[in-house]
Design goal:
This protein is mainly beta. About 10% of the residues lie in helices and about 45% in strands. The chain has three helices and twelve strands, in the order ββααβββαβββββββ. The protein has a five-stranded antiparallel β-sheet. A five-stranded antiparallel β-sheet has the order 7-11-8-9-10, with no helix packed on it. It is globular, with a radius of gyration of 16 Å.
Length: about 170
């Protein structure tokens, strides 16, 4: 991979940057879903007091991001490695379909209902100690890693850089 990459959609330039910049701070929903494997989880959500609704929980957002939203809802994105999986608590309930075991890590594939829509979720889990198919788990995002996009335009609303490990 090069030092800088350009992402095009239908012949139009979407974003140029280092692979890390595009991964950590995609400029729109297209780039967010294009960069990374597995792809970023993307789904609609309502704005709530001080943040965005994440199932039965509210993920805090900065005032600028909330103010930039045009309607009552946004599209949020969370990468599989930025999801916390637990057996109880607040968040989104996910039914596990399968866990792909890859040694030290695994990927949980499941589905949930969000805003009346069935969504597919992918979350990174421990490769040795993880849920099984048909289990129900609760997911929440690491708050510092939530991406927020305008639902109508697809453009990124969250201006603060998402933290990434070195």
């Amino acid at each position: 991979m090069g030092d800088r990459i350009a992402v095009l959609k239908d012949g139009l330039l979407q974003q140029v940057g280092t692979p890390r910049e595009l991964y950590a701070n995609p400029t729109n929903i297209f780039v967010a879903g294009f960069i990374g494997s597995p792809a970023m989880n993307l789904f609609g959500s309502k704005l709530a007091e001080g943040g965005v609704q994440f199932g039965t929980d509210v993920t805090k957002l900065d005032r600028e991001t909330v103010a930039a939203a045009k309607g009552k809802g946004v599209t949020i994105g969370v990468r599989p490695e930025d999801i916390i999986v637990s057996n109880s608590g607040k968040g989104i309930e996910v039914e596990v379909d399968i866990v792909e075991e890859l040694g030290a890590d695994g990927y949980l594939y499941g589905s949930a209902k969000v805003e009346g829509q069935k969504i597919e979720i992918v979350a990174r889990v421990d490769g040795r100690n993880h849920p099984k198919a048909k289990d129900k788990v609760i997911i929440t995002p690491k708050p510092e890693h939530v991406h927020v996009f305008d639902t109508e335009t697809g453009e990124r609303l969250s201006k603060t850089a998402v933290e990434v490990g070195n």
